[in-house]
Amino acid sequence: MTRIERRGRRGRTGAADAPRRKVNYHDLRNPFPAMNAFTEDRIEALHQASLTVLEEIGIKVLLPEARKLFRQGGARVEGEMVHIGRETVEAALASAPPSFTVKGARPDKDILLELGRLVFQPGAGAPHATDLVRGRRPGTLGDFREMVQITQSFDVLHMVPPLVEPQDIPMHLRHYAMTEAVLTQSDKVPFVYSRGTPQVRDGFEMIRDFRGLSDDEFHAQSWCYTIINTNSPRVIDMPMAQGLIDFARAGQMSIVTPFTLMGAMAPITVAGAMTLSHAEALAAITLTQLARPGAPVCYGTFTSNVDMKSGAPAFGTPEHFTASLVAGQLARKLGLPWRCAGGSAANINDAQAANESQFGLWGCLLAGASVIIHSAGWLEGGLTVSFEKIITDLEVLQMVAELCAGTPATDADIALDALREVAPSGHFFGAAHTMERYQTQFYEPLVGDWSNFGTWTERGAFDANHRATGIWQNIVANFEPPAHDPDRIDGLRDYIARRTAEGGAPPES
């Protein structure tokens, strides 16, 4: 939902309802020129070094089926070590599509992924949730469901990731509960974990039936996505390799994301860490194309540094920013849509959290990322998603969206009539040009407060963090799910009941 639609929601709760304007936060294009961290010859040297890593040093692949595909594609396999030649990688990059669509429940929720497009996701994959009312705690299905509802309520968030882990649901049943929440509470592009073929198959079948598709229709388009993290340095483990194969063969999108922290599981320099990240991404992308040429796949990186005293991840740092810029240069070299990430290592939603998140976000924007994950809500380097931080970060994302969705100035916008109307030393508050636009023209802050200090203190002086609490509570209390077919909801729940009775699907390691 757009900011103006939320103004309408507040109108239903008592405030004056404002006119709506048409703002498309769904179809965003990055308006910022891509920024380079390295010269093009250094990017080429990094790319060639990554190919040398794959060809000469090799990558460990734990899944026999994946090693078989690599061998059939021309790679040299020695036990679990796979040495992938340049020609095999180049052939895979030639078949990987530079542009593709991932489908939502409705056409206006589809997302087109290609260089120059811009898609946001909130923070994902955290074991804990936190808010000012209930405190920090292990994530529950209730937390996950509420975060899905918040994600659904903002047009600037385009995909539904695995926001927090519902630890009150056993692992062999968790994917049912999460998929049910996403499909019934949202109409956006859903996520499916790669935790073994049985769970992936369940996810595909639930989405296929809920969307009313045949097998052929499901396989002809991408209807969901997964995140594939390599085990740095230089390992593709069994569930990740199987996920790459399963998603590729089903025509569903994989976002390949090596997680390389400088000084820990990657060299301590940006160039060294990105060489490793690029090599691992190329290996995973190659596996998708060996499984099914033309399978949709996103290049990705999650590279930052660690605190060398404690080993804890750090985000929103100069190294994180620089690594994002380098990843953008590499993605443009490959011509593939790509995923980058924001985030924060702060423990609470404070000034440190805001600064780290915004600096990380700008690294992604100036790098030209197609998908920016962890753009709202992430704390503690991914250990926690905060309800209040989702809201305060959305303030920034919607500022960015206003820039991306802007329109060229018309003759009327130049305002010659207003300039003629207002006398010297006058004001434009009551000018006809202003009155025609003031309710529909301008960005309205979500948690920011532009009143003067005296007015602010008279109203109780709530800071942004506490205002955010009221906003997310109001969204959850008044949430109305999309109007899905009741028969499909019943069918989804029947499927889950049947599979649960059959024992579910334990994750594979």
Automatic annotation (TrEMBL):
Please report the organism this UniProt entry assigns to the protein.
Answer: Ruegeria sediminis
What InterPro entries does this protein's entry cite? MttB-like_sf (IPR038601), MTTB_MeTrfase (IPR010426)
Q: What is its EC number?
A: 2.1.1.-
Quick check: keyword Transferase in the entry? Answer: yes
Name of the protein in its database record: Methyltransferase
Q: Name one GO molecular function term.
A: methyltransferase activity
Family membership: Belongs to the trimethylamine methyltransferase family.
The alphabetized list of GO BP terms reads: methylation
UniProt entry keywords in alphabetical sequence:
Methyltransferase, Transferase
For the region Disordered, what residue ranges are annotated?
A: 1-24
In what ranges is there compositional bias, type Basic residues?
Answer: 1-12
